[in-house]
Write a structure and sequence with these properties.
single chain, alpha+beta, four-stranded antiparallel β-sheet, two-stranded antiparallel ribbon
Length: 154
């Protein structure tokens, strides 16, 4: 597959229904058009939703995913569908955030990945979850995520 060959993709350019669960979701990848060049890719999902595993009530988060690719990039439509699959998935904030990060690492084998899960209050307390795969790589501009802490009506 060349950097512009999308023939192996099953969702891009096709109707794709939202997956019923994160386990059923297909995360696809495309070749990095600049292998050997270190750069950062950022995805921001300001309207991420999942369900509380205890009450079934909706939970909301602002996710920021940063990664330095090696050979692969995540195909963005498949990432959107994967993130959508959490809408009916019951899991704690920590589980959702880390499951997303580890699945991306498994699929992409990036040089580095970090995720910030900025969760809106549940029971009056916001929960923020952060993880990265290792030390930040040198020589790559990694901007701050700059998601302000939750301040209510503040």
């Amino acid at each position: 597959m060349t950097a512009t060959d999308v023939s192996g993709l099953t969702q891009l350019g096709h109707h794709a229904a939202p997956p019923a669960s994160p386990e059923e979701a297909v995360l696809e990848r495309v070749p990095n058009p600049h292998p050997g060049t270190r750069y950062l890719v950022r995805f921001t999902a300001p309207e991420f939703t999942s369900l509380c595993p205890m009450t079934g009530q909706p939970d909301f988060a602002h996710l920021m995913i940063d990664y330095v690719p090696r050979d692969w990039l995540v195909e963005s439509k498949s990432l959107k569908l994967y993130l959508t699959s959490f809408r009916n998935h019951g899991a704690f904030h920590e589980a959702c955030t880390l499951d997303i990060a580890k699945r991306l690492v498994d699929v992409l084998s990036p040089e580095w990945l970090r995720i910030g899960g900025y969760w809106y209050p549940r029971g009056g307390i916001p929960i923020d979850v952060f993880w990265q795969s290792g030390a930040s790589p040198e020589g790559v501009w990694i901007p701050a995520q700059d998601v302000p802490p939750y301040r209510g009506r503040g």
